[in-house]
DNA sequence: TTGGAGTCAATAAT
DNA sequence: ATTATTGACTCCAA
């Protein structure tokens, strides 16, 4: 059931309340015997396995290589992220963009998070992937043209699209320096359309500074920040949640892009991603911890690049979080062909690295990361019970 | 309840 | 037009 692409069972676009308008709206509501969250997307035929099952059995995939390849294929064929995401991954454009630009290493992904990558892998192996997507594209365009045509020729006056009329006179300048918030919607219907908070650069700066000192502010601190910045408490909380998780991700990436093999086939497009220039405030303090060069990270994820191969097994181990042997041999058959990617790599033994001294933002990130660790230690210390750390 | 992981979806930026 | 960014949500586990 459920065929993304097209459909649009959008019966009346009105259900305002924060209802869970999320994934897979058309949840069948008749079978007492519920099934798994099911398989939202078609999932290329293949041995009637749900993606979930495939994800569970999937061997390690090199997310970086996969996204790189997907981006290449998409751009080479003028296929957009929206179409790809919507029809192949079941994700929105923004999510796809994020995923392709900053894939997390496989071992850091949850089962759920691996799903999109397995789908991408499957897609890459489909000989007709591009062709199919292009067909979808054509269909969409056709439908669009039709819609448009009918509304223009037939019953011109009637607006088929419903809303979307109205132009609002936004006298407001994009410069909402301080004191903003509490915007009201004035349009006809009192829909109270959340204005979407947009934090001013200064506010972000302030929050980042606060983060540097304390990645995990106490509710009290949060309240203070909120009132000082004139923001809702929830906004500050959300900001910290988001910032932490995004910083974390950056660290993963940083960890990944080491081991540039230089030569090799296609020249990868290394994006330096310069960090923003922090401003001011020299009060760095912290002095204490230093020198401790995190030279040895857990397991530096492999990094393929080029066209190497080898299905080397993890030499890694150690520091595994939730123990997960997961050594399975399955005669999966079908899976083998699907997951044998001539890629992957070795467990590059990252040569310590002579980090470049400069880069204050990176330094700050590390400092914050240490605070992060300290926070956890303190938290855990409050509880008895032996422990095993993993940072 | 708190924090993390994934996403959505509005809107910025190209 | 597309793609990138990001505040807010949902779901989960501890």
Give a structural overview:
This protein has 391 residues and is mainly alpha-helical. The chain has eleven helices and no strands. The chain has helices at residues 51-57, 63-76, 81-89, 93-101, 111-125, 129-153, 201-213, 219-229, 233-256, 334-339, 360-381. Helix 3 (81-89) crosses helix 4 (93-101). The two termini are 43 Å apart. It binds a DNA duplex (14 and 14 nucleotides) through helix 4, helix 5 and helix 9.
Rg on CA atoms, Å: 25 Å
Unreliably modeled segments: 1-36, 155-187, 261-334, 341-355, 385-391
Extended strand count: 0
Mean pLDDT: 65
The largest pleated sheet is described as: none
Strand content: under 5%
Question: How far is the first residue's CA from the last residue's CA?
Answer: 43 Å
Classification by helices and strands? mainly alpha
Helix content: 25-40%
Count of discrete alpha- or pi-helical segments spanning 4 or more residues: 11
Helix/strand order: HHHHHHHHHHH
The protein's oligomeric status is: single chain
Identify the overall geometry. globular
Brief overview:
This protein is mainly α and 391 residues long. Helices cover 40% and strands 0% of the residues.
List keywords for this structure.
0% strand, single chain, disordered C terminus, DNA-binding, 391 residues, 11 helices
Write the layout of secondary structure elements.
Blueprint: H1 51-57, H2 63-76, H3 81-89, H4 93-101, H5 111-125, H6 129-153, H7 201-213, H8 219-229, H9 233-256, H10 334-339, H11 360-381
Helix pairs in contact: 1-5, 2-5, 3-4, 8-9
The structure holds a DNA duplex (14 and 14 nucleotides).
């Amino acid at each position: 059931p459920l065929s993304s692409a097209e459909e649009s069972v959008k019966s009346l676009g009105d259900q305002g309340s924060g209802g869970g308008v999320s994934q897979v709206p058309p949840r069948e509501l008749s079978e007492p015997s519920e099934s798994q969250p099911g398989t939202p997307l078609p999932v290329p035929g293949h041995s009637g396995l749900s993606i979930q099952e495939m994800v569970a059995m999937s061997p390690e995939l090199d997310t970086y290589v996969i996204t790189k390849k997907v981006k290449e294929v998409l751009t080479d064929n003028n296929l957009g992220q929206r179409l790809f995401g919507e029809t192949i991954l079941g994700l929105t454009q923004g999510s796809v963009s994020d995923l392709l630009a900053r894939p997390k290493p496989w071992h850091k992904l949850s089962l759920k998070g691996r799903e999109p990558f397995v789908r991408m892998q499957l897609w890459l192996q489909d000989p007709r992937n591009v062709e199919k997507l292009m067909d979808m594209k054509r269909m969409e365009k056709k439908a669009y043209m039709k819609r448009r045509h009918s509304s223009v020729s037939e019953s011109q006056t009637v607006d088929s699209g419903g809303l979307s009329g109205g132009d609002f006179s936004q006298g407001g300048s994009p410069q909402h320096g301080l004191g903003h918030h509490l915007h009201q919607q004035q349009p006809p219907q009192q829909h109270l359309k959340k204005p979407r908070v947009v934090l001013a650069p200064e506010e972000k700066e302030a929050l980042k500074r606060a983060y540097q000192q304390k990645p995990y502010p106490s509710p009290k601190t949060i309240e203070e920040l909120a009132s000082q910045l004139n923001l809702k408490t929830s906004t500050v909380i959300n900001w910290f949640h988001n910032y932490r998780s995004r910083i974390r991700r950056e660290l993963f990436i940083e960890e990944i892009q080491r081991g540039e093999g230089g030569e090799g086939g296609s020249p990868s497009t290394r994006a330096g991603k310069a960090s923003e220039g922090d401003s001011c405030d020299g009060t760095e303090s912290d002095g204490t911890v230093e020198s401790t060069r995190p030279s040895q990270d857990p397991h530096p994820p492999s990094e393929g690049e080029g066209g190497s191969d080898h299905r080397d097994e993890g030499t890694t181990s150690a520091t595994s979080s939730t123990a997960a042997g997961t050594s399975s041999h399955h005669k999966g058959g079908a899976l083998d062909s699907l997951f044998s990617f001539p890629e992957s790599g070795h467990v590059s033994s990252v040569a310590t690295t002579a980090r470049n001294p400069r880069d204050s933002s990176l330094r700050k990130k590390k400092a914050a990361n240490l605070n992060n660790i300290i926070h956890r230690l303190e938290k855990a210390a409050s509880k008895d019970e032996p422990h095993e750390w993993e940072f």
